[in-house]
Amino acid sequence: MNNVSQADRKSQELVCLLLGFLVFFGSLVLAGFYTEADQAAYHSAYNILPGMGWATGQLAYESAVSSAERVHYIVSLLGSTLEIDKDLLMSVCNGILAAYSMRLFLAWGADIRIAAAIVTTNFYVFVLYFSAERLKFGFLFLVLAFLSTGKPVRMFVFSFMSVWSHFSMFPVWLGAWLSGFIAKLERGELRPRSILLKFAFPAVVVAVGIGFESNYLLWKLSIYLAGRESLSFTSLVPVLILLGLSCFYARKLFGPVLSFLPVMVGVGILGGSRLNMLGYFIFLYYGLRANGGLNVGVLATLAYLAYKAFGFVSNIIVYGHGFP
């Protein structure tokens, strides 16, 4: 929301708030239909947590959802202990994610209609709202981190929380770190304090975090590797298309390539699906800056993902989950 008048800024913030409420109410309605697959496990975990201590609850949670993302566990533990309805709690989180995502897209220069379409009709966003419940918190903190640009401490905290919420967010941050480092190096903007605060310190913290969570990460990696299909070039096609579009709209090669590189490596090792979703949001960073997103690349992907979202919602209503 840069370079706009105070009145326009307030109008945009009001639209963000209204769309947040719209997503909240829509999520609350649709959540009543989503009772199978992922949500069956999430509801099971949520319902057994009240009255349990931290350690006992964590074991029960991990057994129910077959994973161990800490932030989702903490939210589930607090919500269930306070006897907040799970669908209500997650719908509130969806509304918050939608409102702040709108703010971020507008800050990136998006036309307000494009930003609204992304948070209300996009398949990948709908997956975050309903299926990828743990990944949702990773994206929420990702959005908050990008909105904290210029406030390094706050940005670092939100970045850490994003990766801690779901390790799939790590390729996004690694790509942003690489492209940011090289861009500042090319412009001669790297000063000793800047290197220490924005690059060296985060790198050390990430390394320590990976070491601390090494057992969990190796376990998670083994699950991904066991479940992925054999590597083929076709698994890289979606992210390569998004990379090509990003280079075109950025009018440069090096920055987008560095941003996408960790995601492409991840796709090569683990397969597409979730990592293609990450690639799409990296593409939005570049695509929304070109004429506010009113360009062929953004509009075409929006139309395609809106079509997929329609099928996803239909599946929820008919089958009780999005991927029958």
Task: Produce the secondary structure layout.
Elements: H1 6-31, H2 38-48, H3 54-65, H4 70-81, H5 86-107, H6 112-121, H7 123-130, H8 133-146, H9 152-165, H10 170-187, H11 192-212, H12 214-227, H13 237-250, H14 254-270, H15 274-287, H16 296-319
Helix pairs in contact: 1-5, 1-6, 2-3, 2-4, 5-6, 5-8, 6-16, 7-8, 7-16, 8-9, 10-14, 13-14, 13-15, 14-15
- Termini distance? 39 Å
Number of domains: 2
Query: Which outline best applies?
Result: globular
Number of strands: 0
> Order of SSEs, N→C?
HHHHHHHHHHHHHHHH
Count up the helices: 16
Q: Rg to the nearest angstrom?
A: 20 Å
What structural class do helix, strand and pairing data support?
mainly alpha
Portion in helices? over 70%
Summarize the structure.
The chain is an all-alpha fold and 324 residues long. It has helices at residues 6-31, 38-48, 54-65, 70-81, 86-107, 112-121, 123-130, 133-146, 152-165, 170-187, 192-212, 214-227, 237-250, 254-270, 274-287, 296-319.
